[in-house]
Structure formats: structure tokens, C-alpha cells
Amino acid sequence: MAAGDLVLTGLMAVLLVGIAALLTRIENWRSYTPLAGGGTATGETVVHREKPAGIVRWLTTVDHKDIGLLYGVYAVIAFAVGGIMAMLIRLQLVTPGGALLGANAYNSILTSHGITMLFLFGTPIIAAFANYFIPLLIGADDMAFPRINAIAFWLLPPAALLIWAGFFLAPVTENMIEPAQTAWTMYTPLSVEQTNPGVDLMLLGLHLSGVAATMGAINFIATVFTERAEEVTWANLDIFSWTILTQSALILFAFPLLGSAIVMLLLDRNLATTFFAVEGGGPLLWQHLFWFFGHPEVYILVLPPMGLVSLILPKFAGRKLFGFKFVVYSTLAIGVLSFGVWAHHMFSTGMDPRLRASFMAVSLAIAIPSAVKTFNWITTMWNGRLRLTSPMLFCIGFISNFIIGGVTGVFLAAIPVDLVLHDTYYVVGHFHYIVMGAIGFAAFAGIYYWFPVFTGRMYQRTLGKAHFWLSMIGTNVTFFAMLALGYLGMPRRYATYQFDGAIAPLAQVQTYHLLATVGAVLLFVGQLIFVWNVVQSWLEGPKVEDGDPWDLERDGMLDREFQWFDRKLETAVTDGGEDEEQSALTGARSDD
Amino acid sequence: MEEQPGLSDQYRMSSPWPVFVALGLALSEIGVFIGLFPVAVFGLILFGGSVAGILTESGYATRPWPTLVGIGVLLAVLAALVAVLQLPTSAFTLANVGEGPLFTRLVAVVVAGAVMVAMGGAGSVAEQTKV
Amino acid sequence: MALFGFEKDTLLDLTVNVIPLGIILFFIAAFAVVPAFGTDPVFTGMQFALMISMFLLLAVLTYYAGRAIEGAEQEQESLEEASAVNEPEGEVTGLEDGDDAEAELDDASADGDDE
Ligand code: HEM
Ligand SMILES: [Cu+2]
User: For residue A46, which residues of chain B lie inside 8 Å, CB to CB?
Assistant: First the structure.
């Protein structure tokens, strides 16, 4: 042990000295002037360009567009990792005895899949769009706090390493440190009793990602409130900014609570406190705290995608969003009500029936604003001049999947139905229709819609359509089969299902599992095409020359971000094609 | 001062500090919660130092040293407070470092705080005597 | 009609949140009239506290959001009246006036069936 400590000390010392040396080399911190904003009035500091070159640029950037891209790349990598985990889960379940994994490995992968997708893909991909486009859409120079923005992003890579730490450390520590097997909900007492330090590492990773999300949220709220251009008012603020504003408010109330609950859990695990012990707060306390965060979290994940669809869908329907204000007010309604429904995840815990009934009441009420949005999207397309581009296809797919996901959610919110279906694959089907079928689809719609802005190039349309159809069919095959499995009584989170035919019809269960796996393979192939399309088009796609690649001008729907893109293309041409953009403000000064 | 513009003077959209603030926070959390003494100490120092740096860079502070001292004092006082409130006085022994799970962690925080105070003090003294 | 001091148009927009408010109200009334599981000071209290607090929070947020949006709209209108150029801007778009002019021509046909 002492030797280990010594090595660790040495390592840390070297790290610290290295960092200090690096900082003194690249940064002259004696020259800081008392003025904010860096090198403003001092004659001797020469501002050549906005950013250094190469990898240093990406490590030191505080530009919201760069940070948006970093978030995007990060999220896509996490999506790939989570997706491979999902494939392992689905392949495992083709046979009742389990095809590839032992029970422990299955549990580890199931746990990491959920956490990876929600915290390392879902939240960051939304932050990617928000960082890139909120300042452009509201006419701001940058985020209100660019440095905090960068800090929030850089907390995420360590968070991911910690969450996945068990997988890396198990082989080198002879399984002393294993991946967590708590499921993403980390229910006590299980999560206290698993002594595996991998659980602590995962909890720390989650905590860091929560800190990051909270910092980001504060930044977005400040940006939308204080950095709007003069002509952007509450009356004409775009819908995506509204959803990000609401989402940030939800994060502000939900994530700090998760952080505190995680700290309590860590203390229970390591320092023998009794927050969640029977003699202390009791195991149900964890469920209440977790879901008080957890339900808002699902809306944290779905509101901005709803905003993306509300923004993109009208562009290809040739009509303004029908009932824009309805969508705004129902976004706000969802924001508030999502804090009053958490116990619908706990209907079967034996809580007081009167309380349970009131959670059902609010859960049914929250379905209305979601339904309102759905009708607004459908009406927007009604009699419109539809153009079935890839982003539009994904928007339409979003609506279709969101309807199934939403309706199954309303069923689950009814206590008698939930008591039958709770903890079956029906629940898994419900939320995957939303997290994959809706949130994932909106992310794809956003990536395709803004691909020209991100990269200056166009993606390959045929591949985009193939990606859509494989995803759409794959999603519906996989997750509809899961709904059916739920009706057949298949419980969730099991590595095997060799049960007695008297309990459930085993043959049908296996068939549906097989179907779900076939769907997952379709999905997987679709995502391979997506990654290929993005990478290849980014490198070699045709350069976009028109600032309005979607021909939005025709319907008077060219938003600020494309106007900015247009200006950027024009200045790039006259300046001789320097690839850093020159914002109107700095352009004059740095052109010296 | 000899002039050799640093990164964040040279490039308006760059700052070297955010990565290290994040890394410092991550290491501190791992160190303190998992109970790895050296990681906790160095993580906290890195975190405190980077916070002092970024505040100076963005103009919220003129020099980094007072911030560093402030963070050090804050951490040390907080940890000492927790120790006094949560532990019996009999636990406060040198032999207990590395033994009592809570005590060891708190000592790590106090040590990190003390080092930051020392660094901050040394830094400002050195600067005043040089210029 | 000037309910809560809102204009008719705004009121119409706000109805969207009146529906969930109505549903909550319905359940409050239903549970008050038929206490199917008996009453208990603590749990019945919490039951109603949850529903009533959600009702109030939603009502208050809707009110202030309506205020903010209506206020911004009126300001914009008076601005537009002041500057004689009475060009209605798209809700989401902020097209610059300059390059708008030529687009106006082919816009007309597409805009026609809009609202
Ligand atoms: C239309 C509104 C919705 C209603 C009424 C609703 C209702 C429910 C209910 C009652 C459950 C608990 C089922 C059970 O465990 O027995 C549930 C689970 C879940 N819902 Fe929804 N839902 C809605 C929308 C959403 C959205 C938008 C998302 C995601 C963004 C979502 C994600 C989830 C997740 C992840 C779970 C499973 C949690 C777990 O046990 O692991 N739901 N939903
Ligand atoms: Cu929920």
C-alpha cells in the first residue's frame, strides 16, 4: 500500500510540475492587464488571430462554436460506445439462456448503456446545438461566460472516463474494481451494498457531469436573458431558445439535487452514514430524491429536441410554425409540471394510495402540453409544401415515434395499468420510443440541417435517407417488440429468461426478443452509414457556396444563424479565404 | 516586465485555464471521495491554482496570489470545522492519518489548503521583491 | 374582454395552459368529493398540497410569461408604428430589410395561403 501511495504521490507531483511548466511556457500571466476581455487597450499585445492553431486551439478555445463542436464530437463518440453496449445487450437476449455474456457482465453493460446514453450522449448533444446556435439565434457575440462554458465541457471527458472506469480497471486490478452493476437508477440498498469501488468512480463521474450540466445551464440562462440583440424580444425569441431556457431552468433545480443525493450515497458507501439505511432515511428516500431529479431529467432531454423539431419542421413545410405561442406556453407548462410527477416511477412501492393518486393526476395533466405540440407540428405540415429532405424526414419520424412513446407514457401514468406493466419491457419500449425515436431523431435532424453551417460542406443525401429509413424501421421493430414483450410479462433487466412456460409463453417471448434484436441490427447499420456520411462529407463533401443551402429565403424563413453563415461565406471570399470567421466586431481591428 | 505575449493575450478566443480547472476538480473529487491522499492534495492545489489563474486572466482579480490564499484558507477552515464537529478529539492523532477514513480525507484537504496559502504567500512576496 | 388584464389574443394563446390547469382542478375536486382511500391529516394534506402547488406554480408562470410576451409585443408594435415602415416581421426570422426587397416578390405567392 505504501509503495502504491508513493508512486501515486510521485505521479501527482510530476503532473503538477508539468502543468505549471506548460502554463508558464504558453501563458504569460505576468502580462495580464486589469481589463477584462484580454489585450484590449494595451498597445504591446498584438492580436493577430482569434485562436492559435492545431490541437492547442481545441484545448484552449472559449469560442461557443468550437465548444459546440467539441460537445458534438464528444456526444457522437459516447453514442457509439452506448450503441455498441446496446448491441451486446440485444445479442445476448436472442436465446433464453443468454448468448454471450455472464450475468455480471450483462449487468455492467446494461448499467453503463443507460448512463452513457442519458448523461454522456443525450445532455451533451443538446449542449452541442445550444452552444453553437443560441448565441447566433439571439444575435449575441458569444455566451455570457465563455470560460465557464469551456470548463463545463472539459468536465465531461473525466466524467466519461470515471463512468466507464470499471471496464478499464477490471482487467488490470484482477476484478478488484469492476464496472458498476447498479442499473442507471442506482437504487438503494443494492447500490450501498455493492462494495465494488467501480461504483464510487461511476458516482463521481455522474457528479462531475451534473456539475457540468449545471454550469452550462447557468450560462444559457444568463445568455438568453442578458445577451439578446436589441431586436430580439420575448415576443420574437425563437422556439429553440425558449426550450433551452426552460431546460436550463429544469437543470438548475434538478441536477444539484442529484449531485447532493450522489454525495449522500457516496458517504453511505464510504463513511458509514445512514442516509439511505433502514435505520436512517430509509431506502425509499433514494427513490424519491432520484426521481425528483429523474423525471425532470427526461424532460430536460426532450424539451430541446422538441424545440429543434419546432424550428426545423416549418422550414421544410413552407409554413410558419402553427400556433407558435401555444408551443411556447406548453413548453413552460411542461417545465413546471415535470416537478410534480416523480412518484409515477414509484407506484408499485407501496406508497400511500392518496399520494399516489395525486401523482397520477399531475402526470395526466402533463400529457396535454405534449399533445398540444404534436398537433401543432401536424397542423404545420397540413397543406404545406413539404420537402422530404433528411432533416425533414427525421422531424416527421420524431413526431410519429413521439406519439407512440407519449401514449404509452400516459397509459403507464394510470396507476392500475402501471401496476401490471411496471418493470416489464413495456416501460423499456415506452422510453426508448422517446429517447431513441424522438430525441435521437431530433439530434439527427439538427445535424443534417446545420451540417453546412458546421462544416461548410453538404452531406450525401442518399446516405442521409438510407440512414433515416434504417433508423425509422429499426426503431419501430425493436421497440414495438419491446412493448409486446411487456404485455407478455417479460421483466426488464434480466440477463436470461429461462422461465417456466406456465408463467409466460416462452416461445413468443423468444420470438419478440429475436425481433427486437433484428431491429437493433437495422438500427446499427443505419448508424454506421450515418458516421460514414458525416466523416466523409466533412472531409470531401461538396463545398457549400450559397449562404442559404435550404432555399429558405423563398418562404422568408432564413433565420439568423444562416444569415451569419451567409456573411461568413461572403467575407471568406473577399478576405481570400481565411478559415477563421471574422465577426463584425473584431473584423475591423484584427484586419490590420 | 519583459514582454512575450501569452496565449490568452495573443488570441482573443483562447484561454489555457478551463481544462485545468476541470481536471483539478475531477482529481480533487476522486482524491477526496475515494480517499487517495496524494490525489486529493494535488487535485485541490491544481483546482485552486487554476481558479486563481482564470480569475486573474478574465480580469476579476488583479493578481492570482490573494485568490490562492483565500481558497486555501477556505478549504482548511471548512475541513477543520467538519473534523471538529464530526470527530471525537481522541481521533486527532498523527497515527490516525491514513487510518480513520474521515480523518485522513480531512487532513488531505487541510494540507492542500496550507500548501495553497504558502504558495500564494510566496508568490506575492517574490513578486513584490522582484519588481 | 380583459381577464387579468390580458388582450383577447393573448388570452386565446393562454388557453393552452388552462387545459392542464383544468385537469388538475378536476382531480382536486374529484378527490375532495370522493376520498376513496379515506382521509388522513398527513397524507391527504400532502395529496392536496402537491396538486394545489402544481396548479399555483403553473398559473403563476403562465401569467408572468403572458405578461412578458404581451409587453414585448406591444413595445414592438408601438415601435413599428413610430417608424413608418410597417413591415410585419416573421415571428422567428429577423430578415434584414435590404435583401428582403427582392425576395418579397416570389414570397407573395408562398405566403398567400399561410394564415
Ligand atoms: C407524455 C408524458 C409522459 C408520461 C405520462 C410518462 C409516464 C411514465 C411512467 C408512468 C413511467 C413509469 C413506468 C414504470 O416504471 O412503471 C415512465 C417511465 C419512463 N419514462 Fe416516461 N412518460 C412520459 C414522457 C416521457 C419522456 C418525454 C421521456 C424521455 C425523454 C420519458 C422517459 C421515461 C423513462 C426513461 C422511464 C423509465 C425509467 C426507469 O424506470 O428506468 N417519458 N414514464
Ligand atoms: Cu417520469
Answer: 5, 10
